[in-house]
């Protein structure tokens, strides 16, 4: 059986990249993964969902008619019971987002864990039924400006392999 995959290249496909992230996170909100891994060397509280026309009001009625940021989406996923795991590079750029994570950790405890690693450089997003990887950091420039390459995989074997690798390499180090 063939499983769909997709390659995206920025900045030429920046709109496609934004649409892909919006679709993946909207799907997560509708059918949350048990565990969601985000691993990016550089990460920002980027706008993930365009709720300016209240397109996501049925999913989160209290969200404003405005762009919805990553921290807001993670909060909604944590409220739905998803375990969120992050691996982030130790870098000044990431400090603001880590502070946002701390406020979520105060609310959701060990449901949210992360590790800050000095030399970490990988990039990806792993849910129960997809694996997105490539050269892109989860930042405005990564999504909209830089020449990046992303690969979306839906093959269960590739997803399981990546989930096992992340678990073996990182789970004990997460706090």
Describe the structure.
The chain has one domain: Endonuclease, Chain A (2-Layer Sandwich). The chain contains 5 helices and 9 strands, in the order βαβββαβαβββαβα. The chain has helices spanning 14-30, 70-79, 95-108, 140-144, 156-170; strands spanning 5-9, 35-40, 47-50, 67-69, 83-89, 112-117, 123-126, 131-134, 149-153. The protein has a 7-stranded mixed β-sheet with strand order 1-9-8-7-2-5-6, with helices on both faces. A hairpin with a 4-residue loop joins strand 7 (123-126) and strand 8 (131-134). It is globular, with a radius of gyration of 15 Å. The mean pLDDT is 96.
Estimated radius of gyration: 15 Å
What percentage of the residues does DSSP assign to strands (E)?
Answer: 25-35%
Main sheet record: 7 strands, mixed
Helix percentage range: 25-40%
Number of distinct beta strands: 9
CATH architecture: 2-Layer Sandwich
Low-confidence stretches: none
CATH topology: Endonuclease, Chain A
CATH superfamily: Endonuclease Chain A
> How would you spell out the order of helices and strands?
EHEEEHEHEEEHEH
* CATH class bucket: Alpha Beta
Strand order of the largest sheet: 1-9-8-7-2-5-6
Structural class: alpha+beta
- Count of DSSP helices? 5
Question: What's a quick, concise take on this entry?
Answer:
The chain has 175 residues and is α+β, with helices and mostly antiparallel strands. The protein has helices spanning 14-30, 70-79, 95-108, 140-144, 156-170, and strands at residues 5-9, 35-40, 47-50, 67-69, 83-89, 112-117, 123-126, 131-134, 149-153.
